[in-house]
Specification:
about 230 residues; 14 strands; elongated; alpha+beta
């Protein structure tokens, strides 16, 4: 059984023209595939589906029980692929994958970094290079995200996939040597490391020398005036 129920309708006709007509009615086309069955064309309320994604804790990884006047009613799916308009971002098409609730599934899960890296406090920049990882797990064990506290990362430190923590019954299906995030050292900070104290000392010596020169000049002036 899935996390939420969602109503869909059968869709007999396909093609660009039909998809355009559906969107004018506030609907979006989709297809349900997997489970050893032929792909089935459907349509659904686009706004209702957007609300489902926004309100469900699982987002696109939400397990959905389909219902309504369609041959796919009663099947549990996830939204495997969403196609959107490039400008407005409206739904163009959704591929729904039927899920076997008794078998592991390969799924992409977002990585969420928390905290402020110690290196950032010192002037570094946290660069997140990997924003999701692929996992193999049971459908009812899909995590909403993988949360990582980066507060212990110093300047130059790197976080890899193998540093991430997941339950024992979940496997990584992403190269574990990939870099998740790095605390970059800005060029100016790297080149200036250790220089402030030296510069301060040089300034004090220069100030002392200048003061001595002024004193000498004053004494000479007094001598000349006498």
């Amino acid at each position: 059984m899935g996390d939420v129920k969602f109503a869909v309708e059968a869709r007999d006709s396909r093609g660009t023209g039909n998809a355009r007509r559906l969107r004018m009615l506030g609907m979006a086309p989709g297809v349900v595939y997997g489970g050893g069955r032929e792909a089935t064309a459907i349509s659904f309320d686009a706004a209702a589906f957007e609300r489902l994604l926004e309100t469900s804790h699982g987002g696109v990884n939400t397990l959905i029980d389909l219902e309504g006047a369609s041959a796919v009613s009663g099947r549990t799916v996830i939204a495997k692929e969403l196609q959107r308009e490039p400008v407005r971002g409206g739904l163009v098409h959704v591929d729904f994958l039927e899920i076997d609730l008794k078998a592991k599934i390969e799924i992409a899960v977002p990585i969420h970094l928390t905290g402020t890296a110690a290196g950032v406090v010192l002037g570094g920049v946290l660069d997140q290079q990997l924003r999701e990882v692929t996992l193999l797990c049971m459908p009812d064990a899909i995590p909403d995200d993988i949360e990582v506290d980066v507060s212990g990362m110093e300047l130059g430190d790197t976080l890899h996939v193998f540093d991430l923590t997941v339950p024992n019954d979940i496997e990584f299906h992403t190269d574990e040597s990939l870099t998740v995030a790095t605390v970059l050292v800005p060029r100016g900070l790297a080149e200036g490391e250790g220089e402030p104290a030296e510069v301060e000392g040089e300034e004090e010596e220069s100030a002392a020398a200048a003061e001595g020169d002024l004193k000498d000049a004053g004494e000479k002036s007094e001598d000349g005036g006498s």
